[in-house]
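Suppose you are handed a protein chain with no further information: no name, no annotation, nothing but its sequence. What can you learn? This example shows the usual starting point.
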Amino acid sequence: MLRKNTLVFIAILVIFTLSLLVILPVEKGLLGKKGVLLGLDLQGGIHLVYKADLSSVEPGDTAEIMDGAVAVIANRINPLGVTEPVIEKHGEDRIVVELPGLSITDKQKERLGRTALLEFGEQATEDEEARWENELGRWKPATGTIDGQEKALNSSYFRENTYVDIDQFGRVLLIFEWDEEGSKLSEEITSRMMGKRLGIFEGDGPLLGEDGLPIAPKVQAVITGSGEITGLSFNEATELSKQLNLGRLPVSLEIIYEQTISPVLGADFVNLSLKAGLIGIVLVMLFMSLYYRLSGLVASLSLIFYGALVMALFKMIPVTLTLAGIGGFVLSIGMAVDANVLIFERMKEELGAGRTLGAAIEVGFSRAWTAIRDSNITTFIVCGILYWVGSSIVAGAPVMGFALTLFIGVAVSMFTAILVTRTLLRLFVGTHLAQRTSLFSPYLGRK
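A reasonable first move is to predict its three-dimensional structure. Written in structure tokens, the prediction is:
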């Protein structure tokens, strides 16, 4: 038994050392892991929730369409320089986008959710139904016939190699190239529209130039292999070129929730959270050491091991820490101590009945285990419910963060209370301190 306990103690020391190597330094860690990920409420940044228009999507295709939308948004965010963006599906028709440490313009927010589909239009007669209307007139989609099927001309026929150039007159040009089918459509449409305006539209409105007017150039030649769009500002042309090359959204998205948090406010949250956590841990360790004496001191050492292991897991998984997540972690510390209290109270009864320290440790842990197990299982169930509820509401990230950190913390607390605390207490068995059983009983329980 003694040899087995020594091996377990060595294993605990190894785990503790590895955990410290993962944690320190906080910004990276000696084992190469990244620094602790901070949520928007701690780091500052932008939280956006987009709602997808799935009205025209077949029920069985919803998941595939949403996965495609997430992939396109991820591609669009990468050029913004965000180091740790969060882009994930939320429910059936929503996409959550978190951009920590970043401030973007309203136009960039809108562009993230645009379909990035340019549609070409021709002016409609009075008898024809118009899809768009602007100061230049009424417009309908410009269509051509391919293999007996009428098709509308749009940027889905662009090759993903558009780029921005400036001509000899200083005009900004958005250069694009048609694929094989687009080239046929463009040739047919521009052949019949010589001298007429070809409108360019994005979504429900026209593509606007730098002067704020709709872009609708006159067709001066038959366009087959490639073409150009003029009138855009350099920045607008560059953004549009990136989106056209990174793919287009399969469905339209609308911003339904937006939250911006100042990095200064987030830094204050971090400092206050660290102070509150340290004060709480020190007070708990002080109480345990004074009230439960040597047993309490052992529990305090276990608590240090617990904190190191949990933080290492947070970095390795990784877990994005929010203010609510830190609350869940601090709460799990209290639950870790609670398990030790149950064990020590059972040990007190066994020592009062005249058992030796070794026997009191084994019987105390054995009889307290069922209560610890059942209470923690109920906590796991609640964490699961909280995480599920948080995943189904728009602003549920704090709820999910709280549930996740509490779940991990409680799971580790079971491990430390049952294995680490018991192993450390067993080290006293056979020593002269084991003869003074009062040192392992609560202070108020001394007779």
